[in-house]
Fold this protein.
Amino acid sequence: MPSGRYEFRVEGRLSDEVAGEFGELEVSESVPETVMHGEVVDEAHLHGILARFRSLGLHVVSMREVPR
């Protein structure tokens, strides 16, 4: 998988502390979800981001690659 820009939508609003766990992503609110987007360098990086969502108990509503 080549690098790409991805958008992740997670359920609810994130605290500043939880949002800080995703320093490589830009975070914005779009009630009732939080939208996070940024550059994903490879498949391992993508799986790492998804693992962080899971470990923090966040529900990913959608994930998609977006144009740069």
